[in-house]
Amino acid sequence: MASARIGVDIGGTFTDLVLLDDQGQVTFTKVSSTPAAPEEAVLTGVARILEQAGLATSDVTEVLHGTTVGSNTMLQKVGAKCGLLTTKGFRDVLEIGRVRTPTMFDLSWDKPVPLVERRYRYEIDERVLASGEVLRPTPVDQVLEAGRFFQKEGVESVAICFINAYKNKANEAAALEAFQQHFPDISVTASISVLPEMREYERTSTTVVNAYVLPALRTYLQRLESGLKRIGVKAPLLVSNSNGGLSSASIAQDTPVFFISSGRSAGVVGAGRLGQARNDKDLVVFDMGGTTASASLIHNGELARTNEYEFRAGISTPSRFIKAGGYMMRVPTIDVAEVGSGAGSIAWLDAGGLLNVGPVSAGAFPGPVCYGIGGEKPTVTDANAILGFLPQSLASGTMQLNIGAARDAVETLLAGPLGISVEEAAVGIREVVNVNMARTIKAVTVERGVDPRDFTLTAFGGSGPVHACDLARALDMERVVFPAAPGVFTAMGMLAGAVERYFVHPSLQQLDALDLAGLDQQIAKMRTQAQQALAAEGYSADRIEYVFDLDMRFRGQDYELPVRVPAKLDESARAQLRSDFLAAYTAMYGYASKDAIECANLRLLARGVATKTLDFNDLRTRKGQEQAAERSSRKVYFDRQSGWVDTPILPRAALTGEVVGPVILESTDTTIVIPPRWRATVDSIGSVIATLA
User: Fold this and answer.
1) CATH placement of domain 78-215
2) What is the pTM (predicted TM-score) of this model?
């Protein structure tokens, strides 16, 4: 009996699907996203890809899904109307934040508006001491009074965050139980279920974000699960989380804060697996979709990860230097910088007549002007179509481009007012968006003390391959790798992910006095927790990997670095922890203090080992999918100096030897642009390698 796993990635413009069967054969497709009801595009795509693969719905064993519902809810500020129950005296924690601004001396900066209005932050006269002792138990009558007020005001979701709950959960648990019992129609999130660790602002903010997006993501996933069953797919739905792992849909519905960056992290995981297959351990991962572009770093084969992330307008990055610019989430995440510059980003002139691109996107509807479905404002896609980079049809031939309409829009809104030609305006759009995207790469390289010239740029996404070589040249990078099927690579990356669960236990002790025996006992307890949690997902104890880290810092500091816990916890482990922390600190900051070292939290990443995972050395694209273009040529406008250049057009599957640019490689999922002075070849696993001549 045949079996297949399907990876699904919803983007702002297209929804990508990749099917991997038990013979290692890959099928992929793209369908237009349906923002008003994202699940409809998924259901349409699943039916189409099964038909292409010649399989039945009963052959599907897993559906792996990355969704932008959480991030879009945050971006568009359309989350639930929220309330907050907090300890008396801590009503304004969200306002106070970290008492800093993201950039010094910027008087124009506006603090993000809290996700909970002050009038809906309700103080409860309870108190747990820093030692964990309960000074005042939870007055249930106050909780019920708050609940009645929230109910009257139409509050849809409530966060509960009491001070020191991470040390003793009794008061918060009592409030949670009372609220759930008496107000079952209001969603509720307790910090002890999301982030049981110190730091009141970070814990409160993370809990509030969870409450804010919970109704939207829960409703969406419930609709998707129902829709899949309706079309006959009874396989479990797994959702990609911000750390590149997978979790059951039920977990995503309860703790959506772990899934805000769902999807984009899967592409980084896939790039890491591709790097292993190619024996290429130092990669800058670049993903450009319809709405955003993102970048991440893989160094010595290790994915860059962090335990906190701020969601904000402009460029979102977990930078250790830029804080307080957005909504804090202290959750495990792939260290990704993201900017609102995608293929659908709208180009516009500001009051001073300067050309800008993004962050507003035309999305799937009304889309770029050249799509002919209602868009009236020129986008990056329109510029690329005008300049000849794109073919006449996209998405497996289902979308015909109206390049004349794109030229008219650029002429009317940009070129005319600027007094330049349509081609010059289109080149300007590309230049501006390339500069914006270069910022994301610098955020994960130069700003981390890393020279991007020492790395290979791995580019994917629907539009990443159209811009990658120009980006590489701007950053003095000389090598670009385009994976097989780069236009749907994020969906493919999900097939490389593993089911993961995360656990944290506060452990504030100085390293010199660290109770190693107690630490060993806590590790055993957390192992048991992980085994119980993953057993519910179908993983036996022998199919679980455990990764334990200690958050460590110098005494007096407020931020930690994760350090791997040695396998054997004897006195040599103390010395190993010290050595590893000093090395990590020096690598991060360029020096190391001689102050005392302390440990803050013990973390566990428990990973379920799948019986079959994605292997790039064993993939075969289903015959016929790659033949998207015939050998031909067309004029392409690469830059102002060369103007229109007659450029060969090749099916990507036809690339066997080496070609010298300019050349454009086309397939059903994306277009790869090889500019002049670049050359390209293909490796044994189907990746296109471009190098600067």
Assistant:
1) 3.40.1360
2) 0.87
